[in-house]
Amino acid sequence: MSHFSRTVARLCAGLAIVASLGVAAPVKASVIQLGFIIDESGSIGSGNYTIIKNGLASAINTLIPVDGTYEISVVSFASSAQTLVNHVLIDSAAALTSVVNAITGDGYSGGSTYMGAAFNAMTTALSGSTRAISASYVNFATDGVNSDADATVIAARNALIAAGADNISVEGIGSGIDQNFLKNSICFPGPCDDSAPYNFPTQGFYIGVADAAGYAAAIGNKIRIVTGQVPEPQMIALLGVGLLALVPAMRRRVRRQPR
């Protein structure tokens, strides 16, 4: 390996997001919980909700191995919350198919944006598992401002953490969101990380996406990171822009060094 290649490799090793991609496969003796909360309130709209739910289902179907490592829970919310997938262990193709069908088969409800109900439903889903859990990661996606009192949402979020959630990360969809509330009161652990490379799972992270299609791309790449797979090239470009900016200067410096 050239000196330049070794230099780049060492720098990559220092970035949390790249390091996370090189983590060995999880030990099969215990299970990693993945919880997904998706907003189907009135501001989302039926067409966008279809994109969101199908994007999540496609990512799970494509990226989650059927080896019993991961347990999936999915909650959708609007004026109330419903559990679409209740801590299902992905240990067979049939189990994976059942999860995908439960997500894609959910009808759009519309309504208000009761975030507290969503967190309470996810707490119930994750806590209902009787398996040995090694880690529990929750992803929360919304396009609006909560209809609950802030204190109600925060209490529900804190109850989810107390029940064992190790990380809560957020996708804010569109421009109608309260970023400060999502970053300061929902992300966990804090402070919320909102710039790449993300320090997952040590910090909760926030990604702002323009629309439902942006969520579909973001959730696929989050699953890739959590499961130790390489993100798609466009996400690598986004997350690694700081690293890539350093490469020309490093190359020039290396070329000047005696061989």
Q: In words, what does this structure look like?
A:
The chain has 259 residues and is an alpha/beta fold. The chain has one domain: 3-Layer(aba) Sandwich (Rossmann fold), CATH 3.40.50.410. 46% of the residues lie in helices and 18% in strands. It has ten helices and six strands; from the N terminus they run ααβαββααβαβαβααα. It has a six-stranded mixed beta sheet with strand order 3-2-1-4-5-6, sandwiched between helices. The two termini are 13 Å apart.
Helix percentage range? 40-55%
Q: How far apart are the termini?
A: 13 Å
**Overall body shape:** globular
Tell me about the biggest sheet?
A: 6 strands, mixed
Could you list the spans in which at least 5 consecutive residues all have pLDDT below 50?
Answer: 2-28, 234-259
Strand content: 15-25%
- The class by helix and strand makeup works out as alpha/beta
- What strand line-up does the widest sheet have? 3-2-1-4-5-6
Strand segment tally: 6
Counting DSSP H or I runs of 4 or more residues, the number of helices is 10
Q: What's the domain count? A: 1
